[in-house]
Amino acid sequence: PRHSNAWDSLGYAYIVAGETIPAIEALLHAIEVEPEYPDAWRHLVHAYHRAGDGNHEASSLAYLRSILPQEAVKVEQELITGNVS
What we know:
By secondary structure, this protein is an all-alpha fold. 81% of the residues lie in helices and 0% in strands. The protein has five helices and no strands. The protein has helices at residues 4-17, 20-33, 38-51, 54-67, 69-81. Helix 3 runs antiparallel to helix 4 and helix 3 (38-51) runs parallel beside helix 5 (69-81). The longest helix is centred in the first third of the chain and has 14 residues, at 4-17. The relative contact order is 0.15.
């Protein structure tokens, strides 16, 4: 589908299931559909974090910080607590 929300939801479901590679693929598709979709960027940071990909995690967080600083702060707190929302 051409709906970023659907791809983001799929990516989030994969994160919860511990499937980081499919999560990243779905979230990148969500961002392709809507480049500044904040939930997809937040979830992508978490997916890269869980995949142990620090470089992509940092660059995704930096981009999120540039478009929505308050969301970036929320993600940083989520990373500390281990919660994804």
